[in-house]
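Case study 2.
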Amino acid sequence: MASSSLQLPYLTVVGAVAIAAVFFFTVIQPSIDGIRFVQEELKNEQKVLEEKESFLRSLDRRLADLEANRAHETRLAVVLPTKEQVEDELRIIHQRATTAGLTIIAIDNVSDAAQAQANAQRSRGENVSLPENVSPLSFNVDVRGPYQGVRAFVSALERSPRLTDINYIRLTTDQAAPDQVSTRITITFYMVNGG
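Prediction:
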């Protein structure tokens, strides 16, 4: 009886360990497996979320690029408009001449002649610096005023936001008014065809 009473605590401990092992493998292990499964699912969801966030960031970058392109297109439309706006060119010429202290004597629209000249050069196979999709809007402008006014007028045209070329300048003086010069200037603006 003494040896069985000594074995009873050991049997109790072994029984408790056996019950704990059975409990662990039947109850806790499936719960641990479930937790691992949930952890894997969370990792997968986190990856999906990161991919979606990356996609949204790329959309934000693309939107910013489009906004920047829109700003560039707006500036380009000022420099090189897509439709003929003779009134705008005349307004620019008038404002610059008036600011320079010049009197406009005459303005002749010679755009057709300038375009015909470019077309003739192309048909002869000559090198034309003007792309085919760009048309010149040329004006012969006769002004009268002081020489410094002519210089200010040309300088103001050169600083214009519009793409502008001064193709020809002829100055003549009048003996009766030596401080005044009569000037013919050929000014060319440009526009994109098909806008």
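The helical segments are 2-79, 86-99, 111-123, 147-158.
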